Amino acid sequence: MPSACRATFSQARTPQPLLAPSPGLARVSQQSSPFPFPVLAAASFLPPARQGTGRTLRTPRRGTPRSRLRLWVLGTGPPGTAPCSGFRRPAAAVFPGLRSTPCSGRAGTMFIPCGETFPDLSGFTLLMPAVSVGNVGQLAIDLIISTLDMCKIGYFYTDCLVPIVGNNPYATANENAAELSTNAEVYSLPSKKLVVLQLRSIFIKYPSILDPDKVCMLHWLVHLFGWCPLLFFTYKSKSFCEKLLCWVENSGCTRVIVLSSSHSYHRNDKQLCSTPFRYLLTPSMQKTVQNKIKSLNWQEMEKSPCIPEIEDSDLCVRVPGGGITKLLYDESCSKDIQMAVLLKFVSEGDNIPDALGLVEYLNEWLQIIKPHVQGDDPTASTLPWKIPSSWRLLFGSGLPPALF
Length: 404
Known about the structure:
Blueprint: E1 40-46, E2 57-59, E3 67-74, E4 111-113, E5 125-129, H1 136-148, E6 151-156, E7 165-167, H2 174-177, E8 180-182, E9 184-189, E10 194-199, E11 205-207, H3 215-225, E12 233-235, H4 237-251, E13 255-263, H5 269-272, E14 277-281, H6 283-295, E15 304-305, E16 315-316, H7 325-335, E17 339-346, H8 352-366
Parallel strand pairs: 5-10, 5-13, 13-17
Antiparallel strand pairs: 1-3, 2-3, 4-6, 6-9, 7-8, 9-10, 11-12, 14-17, 15-16
């Protein structure tokens, strides 16, 4: 399995067997853990006679000989344990599976091709959704894949997304209905230089106690209070964004377009009186498409106070309800990647009209498909978007006739 960006950790040590449980040992096994991976947090005060070979933290205890604090955290990487090192943050992470080396190789870190070779995506435009309010971006990507009859060229193998599996969402006959789909798949249309990533899952939460940045704080909590909190959680969205942009750079994609949405109730007075569509461009993207965007008379996403309750606070771009939209945008700005974000202000509910509006908004720019001549119905779309077969169950199965 190709993996150019391997999760590594320096200062690797031979796994040490755990000592016999002591009164201060707090152990979370796989059976009793709420996490989808083995977690072992052991904070125990061991007498000097039972001292092991790992590093220890010496803490005086009143009325008793000096005892030693030992802390283990077992993450998602290879089996074994890695003792923490003092109160200072280690020079490099000693927790498996949490740090990645810089991208190398042709394919990046997560992409697995359907064939034996990696497809050539040089000069392609990547379209992808953000898992956001109303799932508007994902529905819009569904419309694009179904309408253009795009071919699946691979998928993402990652531990950042909740794993799912299902039938082919774009099946047109019984022959291809049994094909499996997963949480992150890649489709391509070489004739239009388009590659599409469809996300069908949310990001996994994990206890941030395993984050090397939190090790120092954790040491002090255990040192001062004698307990090890497993109450801090964070999402793997940042790790996913870094790996995704790593793949974009290595695959040769020219630009990235993110389809997203934002909460309509967060709009200010100016946004309420104008179109619900907005766009964002990274500095490198502005150099190439700014004139085209201006000719469309689109409105850029306005900046708002970073702290909504304080009007005098600094202004920044905020996308409430936009999922990883802001994170992807910031990362692309720092990496000088050409990225555009197209979004719509929406509310939860039947978001099919929102998806149709967003994909037509995109089509004004890219001209993915040509418009039809408008018929008698003035409200009907002039673009022949093909509804995926899986949308029949978008709101569940219908009511059985026997009820009536």
